[in-house]
Design a protein that fits this description.
Chain lengths: 494, 338
């Protein structure tokens, strides 16, 4: 048998307007822990989704144990030897550990369950991994890490060649991480290869045998971890030689404070304080799970919090409708599920955040509504043949422009943009950037929450770095800013 | 792909709603012509007028059901509310000196009795609103519960039968009045007025627009500043009020409060709403469509009666019509997309 358990050759996945995986080829050696790293949008998730059958590849070949591998569902992938430990765990809380382990593989006689050797064998696998878990215990009593171990045991018992782990440490404690790592390291004796995805770079150095770096959908490098000098070398590979057009913020930024956040704390955020001035573009950078979205949502009044948020000097009442009235608008992270009414037309979508402007005593002025919608289609250059088109039929970039139209029509003084350019093509991206610049020149304050460093560095006057719900640093953007230092801070380094 | 020089308003294609409404009008016409050819004596002006006038109550409750379904919520309590409001209004109005339990009421003045009965109807709506809008429980469960609750009240007050004695003259006036010189009942006029008002609210007001927004995407609606819970709560109150008005008019027409009045009307209201093209997923629908849906259901059931089918067949016919209507709509919209 060949040395490689998985060989990926020229794998491509196209989404409308975006090539998410671009001609990726690399090998994964048998019985190793193979780490997969890259910034958001680098193509890791899409690659994994192809392996688990959640999305279909556009072209390319994957060989599992030397044989062509193709799957259309996670279940089929599992049967063929690739199991996945998803962030959303796949265990049934109401059942016992043993019942969970044997779910779907039970032997029956006339419809009754039989306790066969197979079950004994599966339970044995769990015992060899983690003797402290009692098979007769209810799964609801287990911690997240213990549930993960149950899932790993199930995958091992089903003779998986590969177990994919997607950020398994995101929700578990330090002590449990150590335990989990021991188990992961022990898996090679059981003839299992692990593909490990994490944003925490120190984990990669502790755990990995090999690392593959992806960037902008492309494969950058695959090498043994021992060949990588330190964290900064890995960072450099991840961000690459991105050319930052040096952005120095204008000197004449007003010093009038529009938003003041004091000691904001909730289930995710820890004691966050900062100020945003009028006309300023403030960037909030951090990896997935750092608390960017939670921060935006707390200010907008969707997530509960303790602490104080002052807007234009007055305490903000936590509710989206009050925030909009006060002069705040949010471009949410998920445009289709949170930002748009996709089954309705552009005309209907544009004015929703400020219906007063197109109505009088509750009655809509249809002529005005059409004119307004057309105005924004022209102003933001929305690619459509008219305002009566349903938003679902627009491309991602044009949909995002509709979300922007909504927020602009609300006449907000502060715009919060959560991942404003996620999943849209390069052309639309630069159009959105120029819209943001123009808004700031008009005196609007803007907060950008992004996991794309170039976006933050090219756009923002101030940069705030978040890690694990904490504000780690705040920097004024200028030409001397050090991107490696930023990466180090947001991955948990000092 | 872009053409900024022409400020042309996109108008080459009609909206999906217009399309569905026209489609259902064609279905109605085909059914009507078919019935006229096959069923003896079906085609007459009297039938045409009867179609609308005999079905006014389902259309009236259908208005509330349509608005709610457009936001993605069900209201199965309307039939129960009709019975409850009718029974209570009779009970409040009956003289307090009757000889039998069922002929003795509270003896309240007519106006007070009406207002109180309507308040009780709105009270049921408030229960719906509390559980569905505030506690976010599935609407079908809660409104089935309030359906049972409202009908249960009607049962208790009538001891499982009806109240029809010791009523003041004025009680029977409005339900039996017709427009002078015609056979059209005032109830039909009231229904028509509500339909016109509802169609206006739906298409021309901010309130109507918010109804669509909530149905299309409740989360985006909330993030866009729409007070979703409050809006849904108001719709449940309105739906209960319309059912209450219907209950009063029906009780007045028969000068009686029956505990089993309007059994199954909640289903009829849902069927005509679906026939009229309102999407069960929310975000799409119209009151005009619901009226067309009511006419279709009328034609089918009257044709069945005309063919001397047993009235017991009506339920099966309604079931089949529902399935066919939904299939036809699905196919028409799919074809349009592709």
């Amino acid at each position: 048998m060949s040395d490689n358990v998985l060989e990926i050759r020229n794998l491509v996945k196209d989404y409308p307007g975006v090539r998410a995986v671009n001609d990726v080829s690399f090998d994964i050696k048998r019985n190793t822990v193979h780490c997969l790293v890259g910034e958001n949008g680098a193509g890791k998730s899409t690659l994994i989704k192809i392996l688990t059958g959640a999305v279909e590849r556009t072209s390319g070949v994957v060989l599992l144990n030397g044989k062509p591998y193709c799957t259309s569902s996670p279940k089929e992938a599992k049967e063929k030897g690739i199991s996945t430990l998803f962030q959303e765990l796949n265990v049934v809380d109401q059942l016992t550990v043993e019942e969970n382990l044997t779910l779907g593989v039970e032997d029956t006689l006339f419809g009754f369950l039989r306790k066969t050797n197979k079950i004994v064998k599966i339970v044995e696998v769990l015992r060899s991994l983690e003797p402290s878990i009692d098979p007769h215990q209810s799964v609801s009593m287990l911690s997240v890490a213990q549930k993960q171990i149950v899932e790993i045991a199930k995958a091992v018992a089903s003779d998986a060649d590969i177990i994919i782990m997607d950020e398994p440490t995101a929700a578990i404690s330090e002590a449990e991480i150590t335990k989990l790592f021991q188990i992961i390291k022990g898996l090679r004796e059981k003839n299992v290869t692990v593909i490990y995805i994490s944003h925490r770079l120190d984990e990669i150095f502790t755990l990995g045998d090999y690392v593959t770096v992806m960037r902008d959908g492309k494969h950058i490098e695959t090498k043994p971890i021992s060949d990588i000098k330190d964290r900064s070398e890995l960072c450099r590979l991840m961000i690459g030689k991105t050319v930052f057009e040096c952005y120095a913020s204008p000197q004449d930024v007003s010093s009038e404070t529009i938003l003041e956040v004091n000691n904001l704390t909730n289930h995710k955020l820890k004691n966050i304080s900062f100020k945003v001035n009028k006309g300023e573009i403030a960037g909030f950078y951090g990896l997935v799970g750092a608390g960017k979205t939670e921060l935006a949502q707390a200010i907008y009044g969707i997530e509960p919090y303790e602490g104080e948020i002052l807007f234009n000097g007055a305490k903000l009442i936590p509710s989206p409708s009050k925030a909009i009235e006060a002069g705040i608008a949010l471009v949410p992270e998920e445009r289709r599920s949170q930002g748009l009414f996709t089954i309705l037309t552009i005309r209907t979508n544009v004015p929703v955040m400020n219906m007063k402007k197109i109505s009088r005593s509750g009655i809509i002025n249809s002529a005005k509504e059409r004119i307004v919608a057309q105005e924004y289609v022209d102003k933001l250059n929305i690619g459509t043949n008219g305002t009566e088109k349903e938003v679902s039929k627009l491309s991602g970039g044009n949909q995002q422009k509709v979300v922007f139209s909504k927020c602009l029509f609300a006449d907000a003084d502060l715009l919060m943009l959560d991942e404003p350019t996620r999943g849209i093509d390069v052309g639309a991206k630069s159009e959105i950037y120029s819209i943001i610049r123009q808004l700031s020149q008009e005196g609007k304050s803007i907060m950008i929450f992004s996991s794309e460093l170039p976006e933050i560095m090219n756009m923002c006057d101030y940069i705030y770095l978040l890690y694990d719900g904490k504000m780690k640093a705040s920097l004024k953007n200028n030409c001397d800013i050090n991107s490696e230092m930023i990466i180090r801070i947001v991955t948990g380094g000092e | 792909m872009q053409n900024n020089s022409t400020h042309k308003i996109y108008s080459g294609k009609m909206s999906n709603e217009t399309f569905i409404n026209l489609f259902m009008v064609v279905v109605l016409a085909v059914l009507f012509i078919g019935a006229s050819l096959v069923v003896p004596n079906f085609f007459s002006m009297k039938i045409v007028v009867n179609l609308i006038t005999n079905y006014w109550f389902v259309i009236l409750i259908g208005i509330g059901v349509t608005f709610l379904l457009t936001t993605g919520h069900f209201d199965m309590s309307v039939g129960g509310i009709i019975a409850m409001t009718g029974v209570l209004s009779v009970y409040f109005c009956q003289s307090s000196t009757g000889s039998m339990p069922l002929s003795t009421g509270l003896g309240l003045p007519y106006g007070v009795a009406i207002v109180l009965a309507l308040l009780c109807a709105v009270g049921i709506g408030a229960v719906n609103a509390f559980f569905i809008a505030k506690l976010k429980v599935a609407s079908i469960i809660i409104t089935l519960g309030t359906m049972s609750l409202a009908r249960g009240i009607a049962q208790i007050v009538t001891l499982g039968a009806q109240r029809n004695t010791s009523l003041p003259e004025i009680y029977g006036v409005i339900g039996n009045a017709s427009i002078p010189g015609t056979v059209v009942k005032v109830s039909v006029l009231i229904m028509a007025a509500f339909v016109i008002l509802a169609a206006f609210v739906e298409k021309k007001t901010v309130f109507g627009r918010r109804t669509y927004l909530i149905g299309a995407n409740p989360q985006a609606a909330k993030l866009s500043g729409v007070k979703v819970s409050k809006h849904v709560a108001i719709l449940y109150l309105i739906s209960a009020l319309l059912a209450g008005v219907t209950g009063l008019l029906l009780a007045s027409e028969y000068k009686a409060g029956l505990s089993n009045r309007a059994t199954g009307y909640e289903f009829d209201a849902l069927v005509i709403t679906l026939l009229g093209g309102t999407s069960i997923l929310g975000g799409f629908g119209s009151v005009v469509g619901t009226v067309i849906g009511a006419l279709i259901l009328c034609v089918v059931t009257s044709a069945a009666t005309g063919l001397l089918l047993s009235p017991d067949m009506q339920f099966i016919i309604k079931g089949i019509v529902t399935f066919l209507a939904i299939l036809a709509q699905r196919m028409a919209l799919e074809k349009r997309k592709g």
